[in-house]
């Protein structure tokens, strides 16, 4: 088995925790995440780990996403959190700044983009576990019938270089078979949508903003209302929904994050721009031939979001040495191999990435568009110690923008003000 040199070190921080304990004479380290399927891969990984660490046991705990971010802060404050737990970029900064986490030293072979996401104050605070990027899923039957090459589509708010809008209209049909924009087209009886325009920050909004040369954040403050390129990108998306009717109404997607995914797997949506995190759902749910193309090209090129999930350790763990051993393991190719081989996500350790690619190649799926997206020009997801509070504050306002109840420029200004006020505390 592969045993790369382990350079990971942890600063010793005083504290205690009641999350772990002893089990059959062994020290138990607790590991928390929000994904039940990936939990199974971790259990297989830790079973291997325990064969060479017979004095340790890793207890994998799953807390559903709906409860994860309310339970975690309470547990950290009480000192009862898991010894090691998953986090995302929206939430880790506050814990790092408040000395709730153990810093680690980076190891060669970890995915750089994820390392960068979790570096703050000159220190790395996590061990990269998973990463994902954005590309364009497509229904082969629908795009072939319409004579459209999904890899060649470009959008442009000025209209001069736009090939996407006309394609999306051609791919959208009502129950009588009329296309969007044709005489008699009925937007109240749409049978097939062209695209999944929606208030989906990671898969749609930030990618359009980035590919138009816009920004979302400057330092620890939001700046999206200040950039004309950002306003143009959001207006383009809203128009796809409310004027062109090539995407589902925001009233349906704002309260149901999986609405567009279901439409695509049901064969009722031709183009679905989203992340590699939906590979398994599409494979299991789509009863038609589908493929993956590069994400849409904008005036600034193809620019997508790369997001990473990382594992961090509580500074109050009562089992520092044992926790360090587990952190070391989940930062190795051997430790992450069950995740990659199971096809769950791109692993944080680059050496085992081919196992993930091979899993999908054997199933006839070429992941090159996701790999290209992850290694190309990327758009940074918001970061900062209180960015989660800012996103919570601006989300209802931006939902109103997509619903067409507030003008785009006005809504972005109000959302930016609300978000920055919330981040200022």
UniProtKB/TrEMBL annotation:
Pfam families: SBP_bac_1
Matching Gene3D superfamilies: Periplasmic binding protein-like II
Signal peptide: 1-19
PROSITE patterns reported in the protein's UniProt record: PROKAR_LIPOPROTEIN
InterPro entries for the chain: Bact_solute-bd_prot1 (IPR050490), SBP (IPR006059)
GO CC terms of this entry: cell envelope
Entry-linked SUPFAM superfamilies: Periplasmic binding protein-like II
Coiled coil: none
Keyword Signal in record: yes
Keyword Glycosyltransferase appears in the UniProt entry: no
Intracellular or extracellular location(s): Cell envelope
Keywords: Signal, Transport
Highest taxon of source: Bacteria
PANTHER family: ARABINOSE-BINDING PROTEIN-RELATED, SN-GLYCEROL-3-PHOSPHATE-BINDING PERIPLASMIC PROTEIN UGPB
Entry's family note: Belongs to the bacterial solute-binding protein 1 family.
Protein name in the entry: Carbohydrate ABC transporter substrate-binding protein, CUT1 family
